[in-house]
Each structure stands twice: as C-alpha cells, then as structure tokens.
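User: Could you check the structure of this?
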Amino acid sequence: MARLLNSLLFILLFFPLISVSVAVTVTLNDDDNTDLLFHQDYSPPSPPPPPPHAPSVTCDGDLGGIGSLDTTCRITTDLNLTSDVYISGKGSLVILSDTKFNCLLPGCSITVNISGNFTLGVNSSIYTATFDLAAYNATFLNNSTVNTTGLGGDPPSATSGTPSGIGGGGGGHGGRGAACLVDKSKLPEDVWGGDAYSWSSLQWPWSYGSKGGSTSKEVDYGGGGGGRVKLDILQYLELNGSLLADGGDGGRKGGGGSGGSIYLKAYKMTGSGQISACGGNGYGGGGGGRVSVDIFSRHDDPKIFVHGGSSFGCLDNAGAAGTLYDVVPRSLIVNNHNLSTDTDTLLLEFSYTPVWTNIYIRNRAKASVPLLWSRVQVQGQISLLNGGVLSFGLAHYSSSEFELLAEELLMSDSMIKVYGALRMTVKIFLMWNSKMLIDGGVDGTVETSLLEASNLIVLKESSVIHSNSNLGVHGQGLLNLSGPGNHIEAQRLVLSLFYSVRVAEGSVLRGPSGDASTDAVTPRLNCKVPDCPFELLHPPEDCNVNSSLSFTLQICRVEDISIHGLVEGSVVHFHRARTISVASSGTISASGQGCRGGLGRGSLPSNGIASGAGHGGKGGWGCYKGNCIEGGSSYGNPDLPCELGSGSGNTSSGYSTTGGGIIVMGSWEQPLSSLSIEGLVMADGESFEEISKSDGNLSAHGVPGGASGGSVLLFLRTLDIGDHAVLSTAGGHGSPNGSGGGGGGRIHFHWSDIPTGDVYQPIASVKGNLHAGGGSGWHQTATGENGTITGKDCPRGLYGTFCLECPVGTYKNVSGSDESLCRHCPPDELPRRAIYITIRGGVAEAPCPYRCVSERYRMPLCYTTLEGLIYTFGGPWLFCLFLFGLLTILALVLSVARMKFVGVDELPGPTPTQQGSTIDHSFPFLESLNEVLETNRAEESQTHVHRMYFMGPNTFSEPWHLPHTLPDQIKEIVYEDAFNAFVNEINARAAYQWWEGAIYSILCILGYPLAWHWQQHRRKIKLQRLREFVRSEYDHACLRSCRSRALYEGIKVAASSDLMLAYVDFFLGGDEKRTDLPPRLHQRFPMPIIFGGDGSYMAPFALQNDTILTNLISQLVPPTTWYRLVAGLNARLRLVRRGQLKKTFRNVLGWLETHANPALAVHGVHVDIGWFQDTACGYCQYGLLVHSANVENEHSSVEYVDGGQMEQHSSVKSSNSSGPLREDAPLSNRAHRSSESYISGKKIFGGIIDTSSLQRLTEKRDIFYLLSFLLHNTKPVGHQDLVGLVISMLLLADFGLVLLTLLHLYSLLLADLFLVLFILPFGIFLPFPTGINALFSHGPHRSANIARVYALWNITSLVNVGVAFVCGYIHYSYQPSSKIFPSFQPWNFSLDDSEWWIFPMGLVVGKVLQSQLINWHIANLEIQDRSLYSNDFELFWQS
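Assistant: Sure, the predicted structure tokens are below.
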C-alpha cells in the first residue's frame, strides 16, 4: 500500500513536468525542443517484413571475379559499388589479398549469402554502411578490414540519437552522447547529447549509429553514425582482421557520431582481431554502439571496444560507453576504456526469461537505471571495477524503489548511487575503495533500504555505505569492516542476522550519520517524558528497521561482535548477541548524542552563565558576579537506567551542550553472554570546551554548562574490563567563566543467572576504570555530582556491584549488594589452628567454613594425624596405657610363638659336660668338630707337612694373597719356580674385580648391612673358586711327588667360617721315601696358629680348630684339654674389640697365664699371643704361637720388630688392618734344646705380644670406633627367655614408634616423610623383620648370625632417625612465627612444632637399649657354658 501511495503521489506531482519536458534534455535556447523525462525503450515498433532481395549478382560479370558463386568466386581486383549489392550462391567467395571491395555511400548495404566459405585476404578491405554475411565458414586474415565507420544510415524513427540545436553534442546509441554546454541549474548527469535507443535489440543489434550535433546552423560538422556488421556463420569463424562500426569524428566543431551495431554468431571462433563500435571523437564525444557476440566456442579473445568518443569541448566528459552482450554466458559488459564521463549508459528493462548471468561495469563506465521501479536480477555476478558507476533512479526524485538480486556484488574503485530505496539480495558483497550512496530524500516517504548478503560482506580500503535514511544490513555470515576509512552509516542503522561482525581499527559504524540533522535523529520522546521506552528493555524480535523505535543504531541477532574501530550512535543497542569484544583501539560511543534540553536541563539565567545539567547526579551551580543558579536535577531509575543525558544552554539558538546518549547491551529476556572491554565504552555529556572550539563567538549567546552523562545499561552474564579500558558516563565540564559542570550519568549491570554455590564462577573481572563522575566547574560547588554505578541484587553469599564473594570470615544470608550485609562469623566456632576460608559462591550461612593452617592438621578439630589417632582412644594417657598393654601382649605372644616354633630343645642354655668326654659342647664353634672327628681324615694328619696362611683380610681393596717367600718347611717337597708360578696363579684368582668393589661402595652408601652381605657372598664365591682351582684346575706341578701330582692331593685350600682367614695345607704324596717327613709337633715349633676374624662386631677373633690341627696338637696335648683350651680362648677373644686392643687383649694375656699355660706346661707346651705376616698395606694377623715350655730356653732368642714396639692402625676400609711394619725380624722359638739344631734356620715373620709390648701398641681409630660402644660382644648374662621377651617388647615398641614418627612427619610435610624413608632406603623399617627373623631362627649359630645382622640394621636405622631430627629441626626453625602455636593445656597432648623431637628421641633411646640387649642375646646364644668365663682354674678345667 505504501508503494502504491508513493507512486500515485509521484504521478500527481510530476506528470505536468513530464508533459512540458522540463530539465530533461540539453537546452540550446529558449525555443529548443524537450524530451521526455523518464526514458523507456526508444526502439520503434517492429518494421514490416523487408522486401525480397534483388537477384544475386554474378561473379565474373557483375563482380569482375573469377569463377562462379556456385563453386568458388575469387575477387582479384578492386571493386567500387554505387548501390546495394546482394551476393548469393552455393559455393564460396574469396576476396584475395590487397583487394578493396567498397560501397562508400551512406546507408549502402553489401549482403553475402552463400553456402560455402567466405575469405577476406590479407590487407583486403570492405568499406560499406552495412555488411551482412551468412556462410558456412568465414576467414578474415591479417590486416583485413570490414569498416562501416561513419557510414551509417538513418537511425530508427522516433529516436533522439542525434542531438538537436547547435550544442555540438555527441550522437547516442548504446550510450548517450556527451554534451559540453554547462547549465549551472542542473547536475552534470542531467545534461547529455543524443539519447540511447535500441535497448530491446540488445542481443541482436541492427541499428545504425546516430549523427553527432553541430556547433553551427549553417554547416553540419557532426560526425556520421557507425554502420552495421552482421556475421552469421554456421561453423567456424577465424577473425584476425578488424570489424569496425565506429561513429565518425566531428572534429572541434561537431559532435562525434555514435557507434553502430555488430552482431557475430558462429559455433567456433579463433583469432585475435579487433571488434569496435565506439563513439566518434568530437566537440562532444559520441556514445558507444552495441555489440553482441553469440559464439559457442571461443578459443582466443579478440579485442572488443564499445566505449564512447572523446570530447574536445569537455575533456572529462567523454561519450557514454555502449553495450557488449555475450550471448552464451548471458553477460552484459559496459566498458568505457578508462575514459572519464558524466554521461550515462542506460540500463532499462532486464530480461527475466532467461535471466542474465553477469553484469560488468568497468573502466569508468557510468550506467544508470532511470526507472521509477526496476529489478536488476542476474544469476551470477554484478561487478563494478576501476571507476565504474551504477545509478538507480534520478537525482532529483528520490522516491523510486529498486531491487538488486545476484549471487555476488563486487565493487573495486567504483560507486553505486541510489536515489530512493534499494532492496539488495546477494550472497557475497565485497567492496574495495568503493562507495554505495543511498539518497532517500528528506520527506521521509521512502521506505528503508535493505542490504542482504547471506554469506559475506567485506569493506576494505576506505569503502563507504552511506544512507541519509533508514538502512538495514542483513546477512547470515560475516560482516567485516577491515580497516581505516571503511564506514557504514545511516540515519537509523540496523545490522542483523550475521554470524560475526568485525569492525577493524579505523572503521566506523554510525547511526545517525554524521551529516544528518540532530532534530531528525534524536528521539524526542526520551527528552520530554520521564518514562523508560518499553523497547529498550523488551526490544522486538524481528530486528527490522522501525522509525517509531528509539534505536538509532542496533546490532541484532549477531553471534560475535568484535570492535576495533568506532561504533557511534544516539541510542545504541546490541540485541540477541552472544559475545561482544571491544579491543584496545575500539570505541562504542554515545557521547554528546543525547538531549540538548531534557528533564535535567541546566538553567540559563539572564546573565548568560548556565548551570550544569543533571541526570544520575545534580548539575553544578552556575555563578556570575555572585549570582548563582542551581544545576539541573537528577532523574531516572538507578537500577534500570534508560534515559538520555540532558543538555545545558540556549537550545533555541543552538548554542548548547548535548547530553550523553544511551548504550544498551542485551535485553531482559536475552542477556549478553560475554562482554570484554579493552577500549572505550562512553556515553559522556558534552563539555563547554567542545562547542567553544566550533564557535569562537559563543559568549554572545550565553555560556552553557556541562551536559550530563547518559546511560549504559548492560544485561549480561559475564564481564571482563581490561587494565586500560574505560566505561564512562561522565558529565561534561563547565567553563572557567562560571558555568557548572554536568552531573554524572548512570551505569547499571543487570546480571543474568548469577551462579551460586559449587557452580559459582566470578561473573566480572574489572581492572580498568568505571567513571560516572560529574564534570568539573569553576569552583567546587560548580562541579556536577557523581552519577550512579549499580548492579543487580546479589544472591546470598555474594555482594557488591559485581557479585563478589563475601570477604573471608563473613557470611551473607540475605539478597542484596551492600557490603554491610556480609556479617562477621562467630569467633567461638573457629577451632584452634584453623583459619576461615572462602568457598565457591560465598558463605551463605553460619557456621563459616574454615580450614586448618596446614595440611598436616586434620579436620574438623585441626589435629595432626597422630593426635587424631591418640584422641580416638580417649586421650594421651589412655592411648599410652593401651599401647603399653598391646606391646606387652604382642611380646608375650611372640615369645610363646618363638618357643613353639624354635623348640625348647634348641633354646640356648648351659649344657653340662661329663668328665672325660671327648667332645665339648660349651662353644658353638666346636659343634662342627662332632662331624670332623666322625670323618675318616686321620691319614691327612699323618701326611700333613705345613700350613701356609694367606695374607690380607680378604676385602675388595686388600684381597687374600700368598707370599712368594718359600717356607723352609716345604722346600724339600716342592719346586721353587713352580711354587712361585702357583702363587701367582692363586693370587690372581684371589683378587676381586673392580665392579665387585664398586657395588660394595654403593651398597655402603645405601645400607651397610647390604654391603656386608654382598661382601660375604663374594667371599664365599671366591673361596669356592680357589678350592676348585686347587682341586681340579691346577696340575700340582710345584710338588715333587709324582703321586700327588697324579692324584691332585698334595695341596688343599681351606678357610675360617667368617671367611677372613684362608690357608693352604701341603701334604706328602707317599712316594718321597723320607723318614724325617712329615715332621712331629715339637719339630714344627714355634708353630703359629692364626686367628680368624678381625676383632670387629661381625667377625670377632676366634681360633679356628680342625682335624689336622687337633691331631697335631694331640701329639703332646690331650684332645679334651685342647678342646677346652680353644673354647676358653675363643670366649675371651670374642671380647677383644678393634680400637680397644690394649684394654681387651690384656684380659686374654692374663687368661693365658692363669688358665692356659699352666695346664699346657704339664705337656711341655707353651702358647703366646703374637702378630704375623705384616702386609704392604699395613695389615697384620693375630694368632697363637705354640712352642716348647722348656724354661731353659731364653727369651732373648726372640727378636722383636722396632724394639718390641708394635703400631696398630685402623682404617675405614678394613677394620683389622694395621700400619706397615718397617722391618721383618725373625721370631725364634722357645724349643727344646735337642731340637735347636733343626730349627735354627727357621724364621717366622712377626712378633710376640706380651704385657710389656702391649703398652707400646698404638691404634688409629675411625668413625666405627664410636659404634663399638653400642655394638660389641659381651659375656652371657643368662635369663635368655627374659632377654628375648624384652627384645620382643622393644622391637614392637620400635616399630610402633617408627610408624608414629612417620605419621608425625607426614603431618609436617610429605617431603620429610620421603626423606626419612629413602635416606637410607627403608632402613628405618628393616630392623623389625630382621629382628623377628633372628628371634625365630633355628639353631643358636644361625640365630646369632642373624641377630648380628639385626644389630647392624638397628644401628644403621639411626641414620634415618637422624634425618628425622634434621627435618624436624629445619621445619621448626623456618616455620613463620605466625604459624607457631602455643602448646595445649598440660592435661592435653599435642605435637606442636616445639615438640618435634619426642618420637625421634624415643627411637634413639629404644635403639640404644636394643643394641645392648642384642649383645646379651648373642652372647647367650654363642656361649652356652658360662663357666668358660670362670676365673677359678679348677672350675674351668673341671667343666
């Protein structure tokens, strides 16, 4: 209906003008004719059918050719015709090279209709007005020409192609001719020469061009119109020549003629020739003609020109371009070949059956659609390139409506002008340095223009879309204003339905447009009425442009909006958007876009000094010479602000400031999902300075005050305001002359779906500036009041504008935003060692949540894990009582289980020995003799010659090795050279590999018991390999006895049970036939017997007895006496401690003098303690020197090293190594005189230790010396069951303390727990399983060995306890003082930081006690007969 009314109004207003032909054509004088205003198609009605053709001319007769037209006719000479000619035949026509075939009369026609081929030779030409060719094939060779330039006949009747008058305008045809006369009352596009015609025959052009106008009435200087060329070729067209239908030139006194018509039709075309229907040059250039190309297959691109002619009278206004229509793709091309023009190429009615595919307007062509209503619809692309211009409607009548439908609209350096309204529907709209200008007029009757691009709209390189009326831009894809200078602006602008809108830096979205009058765009409703417009809170869903609504710029139904440039408007609204991002360079502004007056208008008294305007706060006072006037009042709702800011000053004269506008994001029903601001969002009031810059004479009209800020209303879910962002509704500043500042505006955050409880997330991150302050004035009283910044009421637990969690230690159980609603939590509900914490969503109810000050404390009472365990059993005393009872019960259970498992018969205890028994069970080391004596090894004793001891302690650093010195005792039974080779081989096999020592060193670091086990394991393997070598691998080549070499029985290797001492026994083979061999016992004197062990805890000194030694001694001493002597000596030797040899050897020396030697003297034997075989590393062995008891033997025969002084050294690597002896001296025996002749040559390297030499003994003590006070062998104490029970209790207590210590360390810090566990790895746990194993082992000897390992682990675990001490001390020393709490009450129990040492100290005490009890336990196991330690001589030997 609106369109119909507009059309009727248009007809009523402008029909008289049409009838009198006003302002349409070029006015030559007052009597010139006028043409119609609105141009329809000027083509005449269809003419009557043409008369039949005259008979065809003949080839040889009329044309002077050779041949026949029914076969082949060759034109060989020039031919000048004087009339129309018709050539017809069934053959071919060939115009040979350099031949002219002319008819130079205007309107002359040459028609060729043949069935064969047509050929125009090289450099040949056809000049005529009309050339019409129909043939099977056609060939136009190089430089051939068909030229109809300026020879056109009369144009169709009823057309105005030739301009009237003497203006010298160009002729019109496809495009209008140019006119160079200047009419200041008209626009350039309203003045033209000859008009366009023949639009309806665009596809089949067949009109002559029009003649150009003249500048003289007497002489017609105008150029002739172009002719016509038609080629209707059935198959193949080769075009390497030229087809010309240009308008004739008019020179400088006549207008150029318009171009003619060219129509080509063929199946296939090749060649790079030229096709031209251009306008002629002249005073006013002629318009281009019309060209249509209907070629199915075009392999080359000939040059086609249809541009207008140049104008000599107005160089910038050439004739309008003609039209080129490509039939096969249905494309229309308007190309002016870069000739500047103000003259239009008219595009009239468009074809809809079929619809055109493409329209190209290029190279400064200027096309116009001059109809009241028109639809421009193509299936493909509309392209405007390189200065192309497309106009819709007439400049003076902006009431037309147009539709543009295409797949793509591409604009590059071009322009679209619309006079009226445009409905554009495309898929892709791209603009590059182009403009779309929509003039909707000023009467407001034109409907809104709509631009719709379903996929993409991109503006680049200063492209502009401008409308002085309402404009809607719709799409479903992307709208991208990509850089500086890109603008979209309209009086009211709506962008809708896009997936994304991006406004790059330097780009602008503006509504109202910058050149629109303020009264036309400002919603007066908001300035006069205090009520909030309904559409601001509940906008319509259709997103259409509606002039009755308050919005001036709306972005509606857009998913993501990214603003890097400027978005400006009076009432800016973002509706149904998902995210809005304002970059640091971006601005959303409604500053100075509000009311000039308004509800809070600043008053302007007669003195001309105005007060500030009010809104969120009152305006500042305006004062002049003591006369002051109050500022504007505040108004509006702070919780839902939707009012424009007010102005101040003289609104009637226009000298006033303007208030801030309104910015609304989201709506009540559709809040914004996310808003991110890094730039500016402003609705500030205008300041005095801003308008004073534009009007220097402002004081003559009064001095306005500052305007008040506008409103920013945000319906949103989340907000992020960056560090340098500004959200402002500040009031404008007053003048220094006395005008007041404007009041601040209002900002409100209306949060939607505020998460609470466990799903709470902060809804706002505000780091930038929120500003709603009043503008400054000349004085403090003249400063405007601050506006308001409010937020929606927060739910329970949250407070403030941005609904933050209540501060720690407070709770809020009501709705509201005031901070005072967050109440303090009751202090009596907070446990000691606890602090209040924040929880997600804030605290909504008392009691308030809290946490312990450290993770080592456990909720809810903030006890440590240990304290929690203690108080689970009712408190510390009940826990201790329970723990003691539990340990006692478990210990009893272990003892009973041990007796049941081990057996009463195996429990150690004193075993009485029958007088005269051959076997003594008083010492466990002698148990093996039961088996020894039961074997049949007596023959070995009878053939034994000598025992040669290995030197060295059998460690990885100092392995066993035999000395190379050949003993005198075996010189008679071995070969010396072979013996040395044997020593080399066996020493090589006794040495350890490097990796064995490396593993030992690593295990020493990880845990010494592991290293000890590894050493014993490798010693066993080493001994086994030595035995295998001597038994089977070595050929006994060193022995003189053939029988021994054959039977491999002359040499045997053995070792002590502790694997510290090894020796080689040499035996006779039986074939020596020596009566003096083997020697008797007295012949072996002095005979050394080396002790096994090294005096350490794990390997105490012990005399290793065997069958050979027993049988030898039994030659002089009864076996029972010898067994008892060995048992007593070993009992004394196990008390000798390395590092305390002076003290402990004294007891052994005294026992030998009081118990051993008196009993042996009866049998003529005497024993002494001695040292033997000093090694290069300083290690020497201790043992027993057995010799004769003849008192006549003088002591002086014994020589000592270093005057009898011995130096004993200890090292970390070997607990039984001594310092190097500087000299080896022979030790003569105390033998019987009768044997002196035999032994005078024997030497034993070492020395005797007696009371005097013991005083001179010195030792170097290492770090293991201190451990000897804890780990040492003791005398048995008896009460084995009680000792085992106490050990069981201590073992269980130790394990319990370990668990409690680890639990306490876990409460301190998890890292402390790992340090204690893994420095030494799990060493703190291993004493318990080892101790249980020791208590439950079968056999005293095995139990004693495992108990020693248990003792080692018990002492080693002190390293872990030390780490616990260090961790506790560091934790306590570096604990912040604020976290160190006083202890509980004395009747309570706690393990605060100051009491960290309790459990580690308990472990130390327990392990020390365990060490002593283990020493007693081992002594009870190893010494079952306590009479061995009796000081009574008779009691000892009678047991």
